[in-house]
């Protein structure tokens, strides 16, 4: 019996496709690429090991020929594929239909060398009809796509393997440079520079509450005596003052109070009423970029997590291919959506004609449709939940709703504005009513609950007429401060990359993850904060490799790759120009020039400012990380100190603390050694004795989260140094009970039994044997919890002085000050949350409650 061998890149994909085919097919997986450039020296074949280009893996003098090898972990898989091929009459290469997938298929051909007919089958969804259609209309491997992918791979290799070693010599070991990675870092660093140079401005305004009969509405002061009142947009971010030539009226506290008193004597009168109808169109169906942005906003998913879940949904046949720039939809997709709209929402929500969306991205990704539920009969979200789980359900439901919304009628409503004159002051209020919700009934961007969001969008003003008098119920003054530019989140960063045309949506998730894992950036809440190391690295690249981190230059590469993929440009010409130069210095010359001209003493320093004696303070990038220095004294920098938080005042404090040296709390009686209170990268800690040749590793212990360094006593310190502390035997398993302070806080352990300690009730230093036994016998809480357990003590709120804790509640971890609760973001673990993060989360929650 004849056999057809179908090779895909994923075992899940293979399993799903197998369900749609008969006995005449073998469907197997290559598990991704079966060969690539060598990762280490041991992977380089002996035949070329002595070649000068062997470590680079690219023979530049031979038309940039790549050295491809089958890695040791893939050799077994290649043998299995060759064995399967022996029984096959035909081979179908069914890898993804983008450049990467085309490249995988080509590598399979090169390694397997099949003697039977080879066909390339492509599809953008894994349904029975799509698979059958792909089998019936195969094509050849597209070598233009393969060349485009190979060009990208070679460029990335040349960039990383020539620039990175230079960074090791001139700055610090283990640094890396990358074509897209370095540009992403530059975006983060430039935003941080804006925040560092930002100066806040202060302005005041008034808010009035007017009433007609019993209907009240708020209005804000717009102008006084015909002069517009200053707002945040009128300030210069560099000096915190009104922008030059500004003609607005800037109120201070005294002037606003005086105006309030004056206006209280006046009678409010309506001066203008305006009502205009509006329509709001639905959003286009998802692309790779927009799904990453929306999942980050709505579900708090990282870009990498979103793409992993989307891959699972695709390979299990629930959605179309998830790497696409296209917003176009097939007739099948539109018909499927319209059927559900008519049955779920009613025919009044169906537009007369289907909506069509045109892709705005030039030469969109080779998958030719938007991300949508697969097939013509979309799977119900609840079925996905049962089959795959909660996270996959959340992402699928979002895709399902967005698909329906994009084929529904516009939302319609009225926008209202009312101007109220109060003496010489003019107040303005605006409102909005929704007369027909249209697509909003199915999907509201950034909201989990469309019904609630529709209600939130409405602000209804009373019906008033010009010259009608109103009563003034309240008049308040408000102080405002201009805010520094917001840092990028994963979602807003991806939006910026898309806007600038940098990289491909399919690579953004991995690039952002790479930046976060290489200590170039860290998260504060959802914001991406560049480290001091990233600042120095970007400064070096900007000065010595200007083109390589130029936004337009990086974006142009994508256009050039597109030209190669269409057969309009030549791979060799592009690589020659990139490496050797063409009217500009090529990569080779830039690296050679950098070897000669880059001075580590300059590039490793970040100036903070000068003290009153003219002494320069700077952050320097050392072999073991950044540190602060004034030329004589070195001070450790807190682990997650953001560059914009290192003001001159803070820097002087750190230097002064370092100059005083460690504070001795007294002598530990058993050893006779002094006990020091110190501050390091990870916060305050105590240390027993000085580090010497004979005593190279003095004992250290971190403070408990409820301990304040200024209040720490010798007894407290000795107690900390006693940890981990053996308490006695746990009778239930005859194991030793140990009390310790770990990464996630204090805990008890007896064999495999562990329990966290609540510092409000017990300390690992003082907990007794009876107390420990009672705690260890307390069942671990799972599922619904009647009492929220304390996960972490963070300290006192800087304003209210209330104790802030992280607790584990019914719906997951949250921060609380005893009165107000705020959920911990899903992409952040409780142990990562700092006191500052908690204060920000509580502040945002307070604002949400106030606004609602």
Describe the structure.
- With 852 residues, the protein is α+β, with helices and mostly antiparallel strands.
- Helices cover 35% and strands 22% of the residues.
- The strands form 8 sheets. A 6-stranded antiparallel barrel has the order 7-8-12-11-10-13. Strands 2-1-5-6 form a 4-stranded parallel beta sheet, sandwiched between helices.
- Helix 8 crosses helix 9 and helix 8 (288-299) packs antiparallel against helix 14 (490-500).
- The longest helix has 28 residues, at 143-170.
- Residues 363-367 and 782-786 have low confidence and may be disordered.
Question: Major sheet: order of its strands?
Answer: 7-8-12-11-10-13
Overall mean pLDDT: 89
Shape: globular
Indicate the low-confidence ranges by residue numbers: 363-367, 782-786
Radius of gyration: 32 Å
User: Distance between the terminal alpha carbons, to the nearest Å?
Assistant: 69 Å
SSE class = alpha+beta
What percentage of the residues does DSSP assign to strands (E)? Answer: 15-25%
Question: What attributes characterize this protein structure?
Answer:
four-stranded parallel sheet; globular; alpha+beta; 35% helix; 852 residues
Secondary-structure blueprint:
Elements: E1 4-8, H1 11-18, E2 25-29, E3 58-59, E4 65-66, H2 72-86, E5 90-93, H3 99-112, E6 118-120, H4 128-136, H5 143-170, H6 181-197, E7 202-212, E8 215-224, E9 227-228, H7 253-263, E10 268-280, H8 288-299, H9 303-315, H10 331-344, H11 381-388, H12 390-405, E11 411-422, E12 425-436, H13 450-457, E13 469-481, H14 490-500, H15 505-517, E14 521-524, E15 527-530, H16 532-544, H17 551-565, H18 571-580, H19 587-597, H20 600-603, E16 605-610, E17 616-622, E18 625-629, E19 634-636, H21 648-660, E20 663-667, E21 674-680, E22 683-688, E23 700-702, H22 714-721, E24 725-730, E25 735-742, E26 745-750, E27 753-756, H23 769-777, E28 789-796, E29 803-809, E30 812-816, E31 821-823, H24 835-851
Parallel strand pairs: 1-2, 1-5, 5-6
Antiparallel strand pairs: 3-4, 7-8, 7-13, 8-9, 8-12, 10-11, 10-13, 11-12, 14-15, 16-17, 17-18, 18-19, 20-21, 21-22, 22-23, 24-25, 25-26, 26-27, 28-29, 29-30, 30-31
């Amino acid at each position: 019996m004849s056999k057809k061998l179908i090779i895909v890149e994923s075992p899940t994909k293979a399993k799903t496709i197998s369900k749609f085919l008969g006995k005449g097919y073998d469907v197997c997986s290559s598990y991704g690429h079966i060969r690539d450039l060598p990762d280490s020296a041991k992977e380089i074949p002996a035949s070329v090991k002595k070649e000068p280009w062997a470590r680079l893996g690219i023979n530049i003098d031979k038309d940039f020929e790549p050295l491809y090898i089958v890695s040791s972990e893939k050799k077994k898989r290649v043998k299995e594929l060759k064995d399967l091929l022996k029984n096959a009459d035909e081979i179908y290469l069914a890898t993804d239909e983008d450049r990467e997938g085309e490249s995988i298929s080509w590598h399979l051909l090169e390694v397997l060398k099949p003697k039977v007919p080879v066909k390339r089958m492509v599809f953008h969804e894994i349904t029975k009809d799509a698979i059958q259609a792909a089998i019936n209309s195969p094509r050849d491997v597209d070598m233009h796509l393969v060349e485009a992918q190979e060009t990208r791979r070679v460029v990335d290799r040349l960039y990383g393997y020539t620039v990175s070693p230079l960074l090791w010599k001139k700055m610090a070991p283990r640094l890396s440079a990358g074509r897209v990675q370095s540009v992403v870092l530059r975006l983060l660093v430039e935003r941080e520079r804006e925040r560092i140079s930002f100066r806040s401005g202060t302005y005041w305004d008034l808010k009035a509450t007017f009433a007609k009969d019993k209907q009240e509405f708020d209005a804000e002061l717009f102008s006084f005596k015909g002069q517009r009142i200053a707002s945040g947009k009128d300030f210069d971010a560099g000096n915190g003052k009104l922008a030059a030539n500004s003609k607005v009226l800037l109120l201070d506290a005294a002037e606003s109070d005086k105006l309030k008193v004056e206006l209280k004597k006046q009678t409010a009168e309506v001066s203008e009423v305006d009502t205009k109808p509006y329509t709001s169109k639905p959003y286009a169906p998802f692309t790779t970029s927009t799904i990453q942005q929306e999942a980050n906003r709505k579900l708090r998913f990282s870009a990498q997590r979103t793409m992993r879940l989307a891959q699972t949904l695709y390979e299990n046949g629930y959605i179309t291919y998830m790497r696409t720039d296209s917003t176009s939809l097939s007739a099948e997709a539109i018909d499927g959506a319209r059927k559900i709209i008519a049955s779920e929402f009613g025919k009044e929500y169906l537009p007369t004609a289907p909506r069509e969306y045109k892709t705005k991205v030039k030469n969109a990704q080779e998958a030719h449709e938007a991300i949508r539920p697969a097939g013509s009969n979309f799977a119900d979200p609840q079925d996905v939940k049962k089959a795959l789980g909660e996270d996959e359900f959340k992402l699928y439901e979002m895709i399902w709703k967005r698909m329906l919304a994009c084929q529904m009628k516009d939302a319609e409503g009225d926008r209202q504005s009312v101007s109220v004159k109060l003496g010489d002051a003019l107040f303005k209020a605006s409102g909005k009513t929704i007369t027909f919700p249209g697509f909003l009934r199915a999907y509201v961007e950034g909201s989990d609950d469309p019904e609630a969001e529709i209600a939130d969008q409405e602000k209804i003003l009373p019906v008033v007429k010009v010259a009608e008098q109103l009563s003034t119920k309240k008049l308040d003054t408000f102080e405002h401060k201009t805010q520094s530019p917001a840092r990028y989140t994963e979602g807003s960063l991806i939006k910026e990359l898309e806007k600038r045309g940098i990289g491909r949506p399919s690579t953004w998730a991995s690039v952002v993850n790479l930046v976060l894992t290489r200590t170039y950036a860290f998260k504060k809440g959802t914001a991406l904060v560049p480290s001091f190391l990233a600042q120095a690295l970007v400064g070096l690249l900007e000065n010595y490799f200007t083109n390589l981190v130029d936004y337009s230059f990086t974006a142009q590469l994508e256009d050039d790759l597109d030209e190669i993929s269409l057969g309009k440009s030549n791979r060799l010409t592009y690589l020659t120009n990139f490496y050797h130069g063409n009217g500009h210095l090529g990569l080779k010359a830039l690296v050679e020039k950098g070897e000669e001209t880059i001075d580590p003493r300059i590039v490793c320093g970040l100036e903070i400012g000068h003290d009153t004696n003219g002494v320069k303070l700077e952050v320097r990038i050392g072999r073991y990380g950044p540190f602060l220095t004034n030329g004589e004294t070195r001070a450790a920098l807190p682990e997650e100190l953001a560059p914009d938080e290192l003001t001159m005042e803070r820097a002087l404090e750190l230097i002064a603390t370092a100059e005083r040296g460690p504070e001795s709390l007294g002598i530990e009686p058993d050893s006779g050694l002094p006990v020091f209170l110190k501050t390091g990268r990870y916060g305050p800690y105590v240390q027993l004795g000085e580090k010497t040749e004979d005593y190279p590793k003095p004992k250290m212990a971190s403070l408990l989260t409820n301990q304040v360094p200024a209040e720490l006593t010798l007894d407290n310190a000795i107690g900390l140094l006693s940890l981990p502390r053996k308490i006695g035997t746990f009778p239930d398993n005859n194991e030793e009970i140990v009390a310790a302070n770990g990464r996630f806080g204090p805990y008890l352990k007896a064999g495999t039994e562990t329990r966290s300690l609540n510092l409000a009730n017990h300390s690992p230093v003082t907990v007794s044997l009876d107390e420990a036994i009672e705690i260890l016998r307390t069942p671990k809480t799972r599922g619904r919890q009647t009492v929220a357990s304390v996960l972490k003590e963070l300290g006192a709120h800087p304003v209210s002085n209330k104790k802030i804790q992280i607790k584990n509640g019914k719906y997951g971890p949250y921060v609380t000050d005893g009165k107000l609760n705020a959920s911990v973001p899903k992409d952040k673990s409780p142990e990562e949350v700092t006191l500052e993060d908690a204060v920000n989360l509580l502040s945002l929650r307070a604002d949400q409650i106030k606004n609602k």
